[in-house]
Amino acid sequence: MKRPLDYPAARIEDEQETVCGVSFPDPYRWLEADSDETRAWQQAQNLLTDRNISHWPHFPRLLELVDHCTADGNGSPHWMVDPTPVFAGGRWFRLDRAPLEDGRTYPEAAVVRVSRSLEDDGRVVYDPRQDGTASVSWIAPSPDGTMVALGVSPDGGELCELRLYATDSAERLADHIPHPLLGRLSVPQWTPDSAGFFFAAVGDAYAFPVYYHRVGTDTPDTPEPVDAPDVPLVQVDPAGRYAVATSVWALPRYVCDLPARTWRPFVQDVDTTMVGVIDGDRYVAVTSQGAPRGRLVAVDFDSPTPGDPSTWQEVVPESERVLSHVRLVGGRLVVTGSVDTEARAWVFDRNGAELESVPLPGPGAFPNDALPHNALTPDGHPDEFVFVHSTPQSSPGLYRYRLGSRRLETLQPPRATLPGTSVSLRWADSRDGTRVPYHLVLPAGASGEEPLPTLITAYGGGQVAWPPQYPGPVGAFVASGGALVISHQRGGSDLGSGWGAAGQAGEKQTSYDDLYAIAEHLLATGVTTTDLLAVTGWSNGGIMAGAAFAQRPDLWAAVVSQCPILDLVGGHRDPYGKFAISQEFGSFESPEEVRRLAGMSPYQLVDDDGRYPWLYVHAGAIDSACPPGQIRKAVARIQAVTGPDAWALVRIWDGVGHGMASGRSEAILHTTFWLTFLMQRLGMSPPRTKGAANG
Fold it and tell me: For a pLDDT cut of 90, what percent of the chain falls above it?
C-alpha cells in the first residue's frame, strides 16, 4: 500500500448552497473562484500529483507504450477519430495524422491534405505547425474544391476560429469572421455555387445564431431568421434548392428555399430525433418517433403538416437492428447502425427495398459522434461508400465499398493492433432485471478464469452510444496485462433511443445501476476482484465515474473521473452546467428534483464515515463545459474524508479544454498520468517492450 498523502490545506467556510428551497453545506465554495489563493491551491495540488505520478519508475516506458498504442489519434481516448475524408471538386480533403518523414514520429496535430484519390498522399493545404495553432477541429471544402474552411483552435480549447484557405495556393483568404464556433458542434455548410456558406456561432447561454457568409464580404451582424436557440448546423441541398436548419438533437426545425434564403418552419414540436439527408423534394431520415430502435421515413418539403408524424412516409420500418444514420450514395440509401451494439451497414433503394449488406472488417464500430447531428455533415463520394471503422483490437482504418461489388477495399489499414487479445460480448442483469451488454477485451494469454486488473470504460448518457471501438492510448492498459470493459449501459443509444431514454433525466440512476450490474457480473464470473477493479469515464462519463465513487465505493479499487461536473446541484449557477444538467440529469425546478440531483452528486454525497477507493480527477484549466472551479472544491471535500490508505489526486492542466483540441503529445501525457495512477493502485507495470501492441 502506498504512503498517505499530505494534501494542500483547504479552509472551510460556513456557506450554503440553496436551490428551490433545498439547502446543502457548501464549505469549499471559495475554491470555485479564480483568485490568487485558488491558483496557489491548484498549483500545489498539481505538484503533489506530479510527484506521485511522473516519478514512478515505469513512467517513461508507459509513456512510450501509450504513444505507440495511440497510432494516428490525437492522444485522447475519447472520440479520437478524425472525420471521414470529404470529396469536393473532384478531389479528396482530409485531416491527416500520418507519421512524419522518419515513419515513427506523429505530428502534434492533423494537417489538412488534398489529393486526387484516396490512395495518393497529395499535398498539404494547411499545417498547424506553420503558425503555432493547437489543432484543426474540422474541414469544410467548397463544392468546387477551390477553397476550404477550417475550424482552428488557437489555444487548445474547444472554441474555434473560422478561416478560409485557397486550395491551390494554400494561402489564407482575407475573409475575417469574428464569430467563434464550438468545436465539431458547428461545421459550416456551403451552398452548391461555392459562393458562401451557412454557419452557427456561439451565442449567449449556449444559443447558436445562424449566419450566412458570402466569400469576399463581411459577415453580416444580423443572423438568419431561424427562431430556435439550439441549431448549430445548416444542411444544404447539393442541387441548391433547399437548406435545413437542424438542432443539436437532430431535428430539422426549419427549411429554407434557395437561392432566395426564405426560411419557414419544418419539423417542430415533435419529441424525437431525425438524422437525415436532403433527397430531392423530401427529407429522408432515421427517426426514433414511434420506433426506439429507429426507422427510416421521408417528409416532403411542401407538406402542409411536416410536424405531424402521421403524414410521414415510412421507407424502412423498425426491426431488431438499430438504425443510426443515412446517406445517399450512388442513388441508393446507405443506412448505418448496429446489432447488439456492433456496427452494421445496409443498402436500400429509395423506396426502402433492401438490396445488400455492406461487408465490414470485423465486429467493431464506425467513428463515434458525441452528438447525433454531427453525422449530418456530408462526406465521402457520391458513388462510393467511404468510411472509417475500428475494432477493440485494431485502430481505425479507412475503407471503400462500391455498391453491388460485394468486395470491401482497404484504403488505409489500421496502424496499431493489440495482438493476441480476445473480445467477447457479455450480458449482465441490472437491478430491474434488464439485460445490459458489455464487451470484454482480455489481454494476450488470458482466459478470463483468473482475476485480472480490470478497467471499465463507459459514457452512458446523452443518447450517445459507447461502441466497441479501438481504445487508443488505453490499449496500453491491455498491453500491460489488464482486461478492458466497454460498457453499453442505458443512457446511451447503444441499443436505440429507448435504451438512451431509459437512463436519462428522472431515470438517470438506472444508467448507474447498469454500471454496477456490469461490475458485479465481472466479480461473480471471476474476471476480477474488488481489489483489481477500476472505472473511468470522460465528460458525462466523468460525472458517472464520480457518482460511482460516491454511491458504490465498495466496488472499486480506483476511480478515474475525466473532465467531470462533480457538483450537480451547484451547476445551476453556470450557463453550460444548467443547460447540460437539465438536459441529462433533471431540472432545478422542484425540491424533489434538486434532492434527486444531490443523490448523484459527489460533492453532496461524500461523508466522514465512508471508506472510499482511490480517486484521480483529470481536468482542463480552460474547459468551458466542466470548469475547474467546481472540480477544485469537490476534490477538497473528498480529500477531507478519504482515509489514510486512499489517494485522492487531481491534475488540472493549463491551456487545456475538454480534451478534443489537445495536441497529441500533451494528450498522451494526460492519459499516461491517469494510467500510471491506476497501475500503481492495481499492481501493474508496462511490458518491457512495446511489441505487446504491434503497429
Answer: 77
Residue 571 phi, psi dihedral angles, 5° rounding: -65, -15
Given the DSSP bridges, would you call strands 111-115 and 313-316 parallel, antiparallel or unpaired? unpaired
Closest to 319 measured CA to CA, from 123, 495, 60, 532: 495
Helix (H, G, I), strand (E, B) or coil at 476: helix
Q: What is the pTM of this model?
A: 0.93
Residue 400 CB contacts under 8 Å (≥ 6 apart), including other chains: 118, 384, 385, 386, 408, 409, 411
Beta bridge partners of 620: 653
Order of all β-strands in the sheet with 135-141? 135-141, 147-153, 159-166, 181-182
Tell me the sheet residues that pair with 316: 296
Angle between helices 36-53 and 628-641 (to 10 degrees): 60
- What is residue 1's predicted lDDT score, i.e. its pLDDT? 43
Q: How do residues 628-660 score in pLDDT, each as one tens digit?
A: 999 999 999 999 998 778 999 999 999 888 877
Spatial separation of the C-alpha atoms in residues 113 and 131, rounded to whole Å: 17
Query: Look-up: residue for cell 445496409?
Result: 346
SS3 124: strand
CB 613 within 8 Å of CB 645: no
How far, in Å, are 150, 167, 212 from residue 221 at the CA level? 21, 28, 10
The grid coordinates listed for 100 are 512524419
DSSP letters for 224-255: PS---TT--EEEE-TTSSEEEEE-TT--EEEE
DSSP string, 249-263: T--EEEEEETTTTEE
Q: How far apart are CA 616 and CA 678, in angstroms?
A: 9
Q: Distances from the Cα of 399 to the Cαs of 69, 389, 411, 414, in angstroms?
A: 21, 8, 5, 10
C-beta separation of 326 from 296 below 8 A: yes
- What's the burial of 141, exposed, middle or buried (CB within 10 Å: 0-12/13-18/19+)? buried
d(CA 489, CA 437): 7
Tell me the helices (H) and strands (E) count for the chain, helix number first.
11, 36
Over the stretch 377-389, which tens digit does the pLDDT of each residue have?
777 788 899 999 9
With a CB cutoff of 8 Å and minimum separation 6, the contacts of 622 are 155, 156, 157, 655, 656, 657
Cell of 491: 443512457
In this structure, the number of other CB atoms found within 10 A of the CB of residue 553 comes to 18
User: 216, exposed or middle or buried, with CB in 10 Å at 0-12, 13-18, 19+?
Assistant: exposed
Q: Which of 508, 635, 625, 472 is nearest to 563 (CA)?
A: 625
Q: H or E stretch including 546?
A: helix 540-551
| C-alpha to C-alpha distance for 695 and 414, rounded to whole angstroms | 8
The per-residue pLDDT for range 133-147, each reduced to its tens digit, is: 778 888 999 999 999
Vertex 170: Cα angle to 168 and 171 (nearest 5): 115
Neighbours of 317 (CB within 10 A): 11
H-state helical runs in 463-507: 475-479, 497-501
Residue in 634, 563, 626, 620 with CA at minimum distance from that of residue 46: 620
Instruction: At 46, list the grid cell.
Output: 498539481
Residue found by looking up cell 447539393 in the block = 238
* DSSP code at position 83: P
Distance CA 570, CA 77 (A): 28
